[in-house]
Amino acid sequence: MGRPLSRLRCIDCGRDYPLDEIRYECDACSALLEVAHDFDRLQEARDGPAWRRLFDTRLGETSGTARSGVWRYHELVLPDLPSGHVVTKPEGNTNLYPSERLQEISRTRDVRIKHEGENPTLSFKDRGMSAGVSWARHLGVQQVACASTGDTSAAMAAYAAQVEGMRGVVVLPKDKVSMEQLSQPIASGCLTVSLPTDFDACIRLLRDVCRRHSIYLLNSVNPVRIEGQKSIAYETVQQLNWEPPDWMVVPVGNAGNISAIGKGLADLKTLGIIDRLPRLLGAQPEAAAPLARAHQEGYREHVRVKAGDTVATAIRIGDPVSYDKAVRAVRASNGAFISSSEQEIMDAKALVDRTGLYICPNSATAVAGFLKAREQGMIASGERVVIVATAHGCKFSQATIDYHGARLPGIAPRFANRVVEIAADAGAIERLLVPGVPGFSLRKDGE
């Protein structure tokens, strides 16, 4: 085997480590690590237009790893991983939907939603877990683990289940994930552990255990997992015919995804595949918004908060593991962080859901952040905006039902679509639906 194309590198002091060593932090300064590619060799292999042509030729593949929206870009995602070790369902190839409703409401020229809820386990986490579990398989790891607010556990369990002899373990905060999310790791045969605490404590405890034992941690602190998630950036730009948007809006919890997207965009620019970086807008709920507060305060200090209750349960995180990576990515793009109230989040969800695009409350946090940034003038009317929807609304059905039934405390459902109960006879149905029938009462939209 030739000289590796990738290595681990500390994001602070720059110290390098071999990629095949299991480590998550720098020995010298304890900062997080990232996967660093040998871009000189990648640039020697192809110029920007040649990279674009290569990836375009792989679109529509029906067999092999290139049919995946992660492994279509194998040369930029773990190029040292043998294709025979790739674990894929496949994932990616999610749609980029124009949103006329959001364009009209916000008076913005071009708004699109990248719906990562169309992945196999209904969230963007599949991209990262395809990379993380593939690398674990390559290393011969027998036990993988993660702490989760829901989606991470579902993805890790599903991918670990594909590898013979690999055991998955998930640690969840008790009563802090939806039933739909909880059902997924259980269904995949994963060891599912519930702790009477919050996510921040779950990840802290699990990291301590993984440091002392041969258990491969697959939270976003793992730099290999980030490599799979950065394919969201590659795929989005390719879907726009390699013309980057002006903004990408991303919901932020543990901050791994916005870090990954920023890294992916930087890769494309370094290789000459794109000529400019989109600006990143990280969106958080007000109940768990350490990065939005840090942005408001000019990043003077590392902000940690005690996360409060929020409908956006998957991003209810007060001490993001990838905080430093996220700040670096957003500042490099001349972007920002923003926060929204519970009312704004659920109203934004209802607006998008009504277009037939069913999103989760965490994704709605990004929609609400976009609308607020547009109202504040941060985003201009003539700009092209891509909002990343991170999971499918089906994973959070209770929040949807409670909103439309006016059962969410402190939230007045402006766009409620309540269930109508009538008598079980044809006449009652006619009076509800058919104009001209005595007693006709078809509700108008929103009533």
Mean pLDDT: 95
Radius of gyration: 22 Å
Any low-confidence stretches, pLDDT <50, length ≥5? none
Fraction of residues in β-strands: 5-15%
Shape descriptor: globular
Largest sheet: 6 strands, mixed
CATH overall fold name of the domain at 96-122 and 226-401: Rossmann fold
- The CATH class of the domain at 96-122 and 226-401 turns out to be Alpha Beta
**Sequence of secondary-structure elements:** EEEHHEHEHEHEHEHEHHEHEHHEHHEHH
End-to-end separation in angstroms reads 66 Å
> What structural class do the secondary elements suggest?
alpha/beta
Tell how many strands the DSSP assignment holds.
13
For the biggest β-sheet, the strand order reads: 4-5-13-10-11-12
Please estimate the helix content.
25-40%
Can you count the helices?
16
CATH architecture of the domain at 96-122 and 226-401: 3-Layer(aba) Sandwich
Give a concise summary.
By secondary structure, this protein is of the alpha/beta class. Helices cover 36% and strands 14% of the residues.
